[in-house]
Amino acid sequence: MIDVLIAGAGPAGLMLACELRLAGVGVAVVERDAQRPAYCRGFTLNARSLDLLARRGLAAPLIAEGWPVPHAAFGSLPVTLGLAGTFTGHPYTLGIPQTRVEEHLEQQAIRTGADVRRGQELQALEQTGDAVIATVNGERLRAAYVVGCDGGRSTVRKRAGINFPGTDAGMHWLLGDVELADPEALPYGPTAGPAGTVVVIPRPGYVRILAEDPQPSTPATLEALQSAVDQTLGRHVELVRPRWVSRFGDAARQADRYVHGRVILAGDAAHIHPPAGAIGVNVALDDAFNLGWKLAATVHGTAPDHLLESYHTERHAAGSRVLAATRAQTLLGNAGAELQPLVEMLTRVAAHPDGNRAFAEVLTGLDTRYDMPGGGDHPWVGRLCPDLAPGATDGGPVLLDLSGTGAMRPWSDRVRVIEASCPGQPELRAVLLRPDGHVAWALVDGDDSPEQALRYWSGL
User: How far is CA 228 from CA 190, 264, 358, 401, in A?
Assistant: First the structure.
C-alpha cells in the first residue's frame, strides 16, 4: 500500500512530495501529462514563498537563475508596493518561470525517493475505513491517503464529493505568448484603447499579451486574440508566431472542506481565483508546506487527533483571504467612474509608507498568522519566523534557545534545541518553531515553558 498518493505534478503536488519524503513517508505522484507543458502560466515567486523554500535549502538555486524586483505584484492602483522593511528575509519578488520551479521541485522529489509517474491519470476513487482505492489508468491502487493537487477541475475533488462553492466568471480575458510583427507597435505595460486596455508583458524572446475576451464561448486561438486586441485598441497590431493562447476569467471558488476523511485538497484543487497579484503558484506552495508535516505525522501515527484538521482550519481561512484580495484587485482594475473615489482613497493609503508596507504584506501573505494555543502574546507568535538559525527547520520542530545561558537544554530529550541569537529582538529568550517555520511559542520573561505548545502540535 502507498502511504500517500498525490494526483498532480504541479507546484502543490511536487512541493508536498518533497515535504513528505523529508519525513520518510512513501509517496507516489501521478500526473496526467506525459511531459511538462511547453507553455508557462506563472512567472513569479513572492517573498513568502522564498522564505519557505529557503528553510529547505530550495530557494538559492531558484534565486540564482531568476531576476529579483524589489516590489510586490499589484497592478490595480497607480502605486508601486515596495517590499523593503516588510516581515521577510527576501524583500523582493523573484521573476522565474513556473516551469523552472516545477523542474527544480520534481528533481528534488525524485532525489529524495518520490515515485513520480507521468502519463498516469487518476480516474476514480473510493474511501474505505482505512484506505483510499484509486483507479489510475485502469489500475486500482491502495493508499492510506490521497491528495488532490490536480487543478481547478480536480478529479479528486469531484470524485470525493467535495463541494466547490463560489462565483462564476463575469469577465474573461485572452492571454497569449506571441511576438509582435512590429516590436515597436505596442509599449510594455497597459495600453488604453476605445474598448478597453491591452497589457503587454515582456518575456525572453516574445511578449505575453492580455486582452478582454468579447467571445468567451469560442476557442482560444491566435485569431481570437488578434481580433480582441484589434477591437480593444481600434487599430490593427499584428501578432505572429504564437507559443500559447489561453483564456481565463474572474471566477472565485473554494472547496468547503480541504480534508474529507482520507482525501485532501491543495493548490488550485482547493481554490481558484482571479490571477491578480500573481499569487497562484505561491498559495499552492504555502498549502503544501502547511500540509506536509501534518500529513506525515498522521501517517506515522504520532499526530495529535486535531492535527490534520488544522490544515483545513488554517489554509481555508488563508484561501478565503486570497480570494477576497484577488477579487478586490480585479474590481479596482476595472473600476468605473462610480468607484474612482475609492480608488483615489486607496491610492493615498498605499502611497503612505506604513500603508504601502501593509498592502505589500497582505497581498503577498507575509501577514499570515495562525492561531497558536499556549503560544504567548509576542508579535511573532503564529507568524513565519525569520531565519535565525539557517538549516534548523529540516522538517521537525525546533526549539531556539536565544537566552545565551542554555536555559532550554533540559528540553533536548523531547525536541531539537539549537542555541541562536536575535539581536533585533533582545527581549526574546526562546522560540519554538513548528516544522513549517511558524512560531508556535515564544518566551519573553517569566518561567513559561513550551510544554503546552509541544503537546498541541507534536504530541510530545
Answer: 15, 39, 36, 60
